[in-house]
Amino acid sequence: MNKRVLRPLCDRIGRESVDRVTARFYDRLRADAQLAPFFAHIEDFPAHERLIADFWWIALGGKLSDPAPVDMLGLHRPMKLRQSDLDRWLALFGETVDAELEPELAAQWKTMAQGIGARLRQAAIG
């Protein structure tokens, strides 16, 4: 009998790719006329990117020795996001992972992002 070995998405994507996708995604966000204003108040953007890369690493199945707690829903609730903002966020994220990863891995990560987007819609938009 063959033993089935599961490889979490984090292992198939790799930490370097998670960091690269996060950085490229935030480059796009910060250049986007619709979404850039939501990030203008962030003073230490490298720290923010590291926090989000760590969030994704954990969401993709990775482990960290000392993860920072991130309340994505609580942090986004006061931002007054509209449906169109979340749609744009997901579109830019999809474009980024499509450009940076092989199609199968990009599709799986985008599915996760869609789920997070749905929860943000419920929490932030209501």
TrEMBL record:
One of the record's GO molecular function terms: metal ion binding
Name of a matching Pfam family: Bac_globin
Keywords linked to the UniProt accession: Heme, Iron, Metal-binding, Transport
The protein, known as: Globin
Protein's organism: Acidihalobacter ferrooxydans
